[in-house]
Amino acid sequence: MLREELKQKIISESTECIAYLTELVNSNRIYDGEVLAIIIDVIKNGPDQLTNSQWNVLLDKGLLPDFYVECDRCDDTIPWSEMYRAIFIARDHYCPFCRYIENKENTRLLD
Description:
This protein is mainly α. Helices cover 69% and strands 0% of the residues. It is built from six helices and no strands. It has helices at 3-12, 14-26, 33-45, 52-67, 80-89, 96-110. It is elongated, with a radius of gyration of 15 Å.
């Protein structure tokens, strides 16, 4: 996803994005102090008040390197509510549908 598209997704889905960012903070996934300060600001005040410089840090040093992925199987966007699971729990970078299909195929192989 291009940076501008991700920025618009964050703005348009701010409630869901803030829930995801909160999950990242609560699980101590953010190590960069500058990124953490911006994320906490977004959690408290929303993304609308960010400056261009803050957006650059959030996108380039925060989300894009490690904390935002698209589905590795179908290239679709992964909902914010599933992002943590896709990156840190299942570690498959799959959207919910592709994870379901993959699990179904793997189950069939075991039969």
